[in-house]
UniProtKB/TrEMBL annotation:
Localization per record: Cell membrane
Membrane topology: Multi-pass membrane protein
UniProt-listed InterPro entries: LeuE-type (IPR001123)
Alphabetical list of PANTHER family matching this protein: ARGININE EXPORTER PROTEIN ARGO (PTHR30086), ARGININE EXPORTER PROTEIN ARGO-RELATED (PTHR30086:SF20)
Protein name from the UniProt record: Threonine/homoserine/homoserine lactone efflux protein
This protein's GO CC annotations: plasma membrane
Membrane-crossing residue ranges in chain numbering: 12-34, 46-71, 77-94, 115-138, 158-179, 191-210
Gene Ontology molecular function: amino acid transmembrane transporter activity
Keywords carried by this UniProt record: Cell membrane, Membrane, Transmembrane, Transmembrane helix
Keyword Membrane attached: yes
Primary localisation category: membrane
């Protein structure tokens, strides 16, 4: 019989911690959110977040439908995908430490909230790195023997958005101070880099060691 929760508390805690670290890491999404909030106000910043969130929902749905079919049809192929994902996550960790996070906040021209939302959707949908990330990140929290992998992956995607919102929304509401802090204290961004790299390496090791 399927348990009431497909995530036990330790796994849920690990997932939450990973999402929080990912959400606070400076990158294109964060620069877009903060940049729109700084130049056009909080409403524009929140519209940017909503657009990126829509993109995440699309990615999650595609990953859930595709991977669930793969899990049902070929568990061995799914294992190959997870191992490839582990190697990809290890590469991301190395790149994070080599290149470092950046937050290039630029003032943009005025745009409607709908246009800002559409830009947020495009930033996520047209970024192949995000596709690969969700393809490797979410499946690590779903067992290959899960009888309903699509539902579990969709739930994880929604949970990802819910947890990340606790970082992105306050970030947009305090965009000026947040951007100034990262510019004035690069050591903070570097500490985030190390946390993110540690998260990636931990997940990669979990896969390669054959654990859930």
């Amino acid at each position: 019989m399927r348990p009431a929760m497909f995530l036990d508390l330790p796994t849920l805690a690990a997932f939450t911690a990973a999402v929080l670290v990912i959400a606070i890491t400076p990158g294109p999404d964060m620069a877009f959110f903060v940049g729109r909030a700084v130049s056009q106000g909080r409403a524009a910043g929140l519209a940017a977040v909503a657009g990126a969130t829509t993109g995440i929902l699309v990615h999650t749905t595609l990953v859930a439908l595709g991977l669930s079919a793969l899990i049902a049809a070929a568990p061995t192929a799914y294992l190959v995908v997870k191992i490839a994902g582990a190697l990809y996550l290890a590469w991301l960790a190395i790149q994070t430490l080599r290149q470092g996070s950046t937050l290039a906040v630029e003032r943009s021209s005025e745009a409607s909230l709908a246009a800002t939302w559409a830009s947020g959707v495009a930033i996520n949908l047209l970024n192949p790195k995000i596709v690969l990330f969700f393809l490797t990140f979410l499946p690590q929290f779903v067992s290959p023997t899960d009888p309903h992998p699509a539902r579990s992956l969709l739930t994880l995607g929604l949970l990802f958005i819910f947890i990340a919102s606790f970082v992105t929304v306050p970030m947009v509401l305090a965009a000026d101070r947040f951007a100034a802090t990262l510019r004035a204290r690069p050591s903070i961004a570097r500490a985030i880099d190390w946390m993110l790299a540690s998260v990636f390496l931990a997940f990669a090791a979990t896969i390669l060691l054959g654990r859930r």
